Automatic annotation (TrEMBL):
GO MF, any single term: methyltransferase activity
Organism phylogeny: Eukaryota, Fungi, Dikarya, Ascomycota, Pezizomycotina
Name of the protein this chain belongs to: Histidine-specific methyltransferase
UniProtKB keywords: Methyltransferase, S-adenosyl-L-methionine, Transferase
UniProt domain Histidine-specific methyltransferase SAM-dependent: residue ranges: 22-334
Length: 336
């Protein structure tokens, strides 16, 4: 039974969070092609709040499609999980969808150690407190939090301390990655992280991927008329200003472009300069031309075909698929 929520700080020096400022400066000063800022800027406490607003909006089909898929298939998915498994959720967010799976595992009386990983500590504490209330007095499911990034987590799992905390030497480890988050990174990085997660025959990954290809519903979900997505994206610039300790980005100078690129099966969001701008970044001038774009985040839409290609590239097996028929939202079990 969960009486208190334990959060372990696994942030490592030199990993993403500690170095977010340095990464931001590096990205802004990178010469040549398209400029970008780290998508991690979007996920501070304010960003979590703004994202929660998005997920409850009727236009945001992806959240509902995934929740409906997980709710309808929870028993079957839970059956594929061995008793005694350690479930490690990457980018757990509010854990609401996860609750549906953990409840099914509870009904199946499977002892499970659940670890939720995320980068925002207050919302992690809140999510796990809600989860513990949701699960009630489950004697099968224990819950703890890990504060850190994906990279921190993979480093931690290779360390003695991480293996001890999660007790994964002789137990099955199931990574859980919901919310189509795997497609927020470049394809090669997704392949690489999947390969690194499934390094042993004891590990597997349950990942959900949005396969919708309908331009209208995608555009509506990612650029709602009431500006919810825009507020979320603009918060990335506010976070950048906080990190740089200077008012580098003046909100009035920037527009947003949020567009579906059908040929790449990607929705991409950019900050677009309304005029020529000189940014002073860490004492250096970065010149931005009028109309120049800074990449904020990508959300790709992969069908089963792309997931199969990802598995092939990572050298892992696609063991099971559960697909929601309306938006083609998929939940895939990968193993080796
Ligand atoms: C799209 S939301 C999904 C949240 C939740 N899994 C869901 O499906 O509703 C992405 C989540 O991943 C977290 N996140 C993003 N990048 C991360 C990183 N590099 N390391 C750890 N967490 C990250 C964010 O803080 C956020 O909570």
């Amino acid at each position: 039974m969960l009486t208190e929520v334990k959060i372990h700080d696994i942030r490592r020096p030199g990993c993403d969070l500690a170095d977010l400022r340095a990464k931001l400066i590096e990205d802004l000063r990178r010469p040549g092609s398209e400029k970008q800022i780290p998508s991690l800027l979007l996920w501070d406490e304010k960003g979590q709040e703004l994202f929660a607003d998005i997920t409850t909006a009727p236009e945001y089909y992806a959240y509902r499609a995934e929740l409906s898929l997980l709710s309808q298939r929870a028993e079957g998915i839970a059956e594929s999980v061995k008793p005694g498994t350690v479930i490690l959720e990457l980018g757990a967010g509010n854990c609401k969808k996860t609750g549906v799976l953990l409840q099914a595992l509870h009904r199946q009386r499977k002892p499970i150690s659940y670890f939720a990983l995320d980068v925002a500590s207050d919302s992690l504490i809140q999510s796990l407190a809600q989860m513990s209330r949701f699960l009630g007095k489950s004697k099968y499911i224990s819950c703890q939090g890990l504060l850190g990034s994906y990279e921190d987590c993979l480093t931690f799992l290779n360390e003695e301390e991480g293996q001890k905390l999660l007790c994964i030497r002789n137990r099955h480890l199931l990574f859980l990655w919901l919310g189509n988050s795997i497609t927020n990174m470049p394809w090669e990085d997704s392949v690489d992280i999947v390969r690194r997660m499934l390094w042993s025959s004891n590990s597997a990954l349950l990942v959900s991927v949005d396969g919708n290809q309908n331009p209208q519903s995608i555009q509506m979900a990612y650029d709602m008329p009431d500006g919810k997505n825009r507020r979320f994206l603009r918060n990335g610039l506010t976070h950048a200003n906080l990190l740089l300790d200077e008012g580098v980005f003046n909100a009035g100078d920037w527009d947003l472009e949020a567009k579906w690129y059908a040929e790449d099966k990607e929705h991409r969001a950019y900050h677009v300069a309304k005029r020529e701008i000189s940014l002073t970044v860490d004492g250096n001038i970065v010149q931005i031309a009028k109309g120049e774009k800074i990449h904020a985040i990508t959300s790709a839409k992969w069908t089963t075909e792309e997931v199969e290609r990802l598995c092939e590239a990572a050298g892992v097996e696609l063991e099971h698929s559960w697909i929601e028929p309306v938006y083609n939202f998929g939940c895939y079990l990968l193993g080796n």
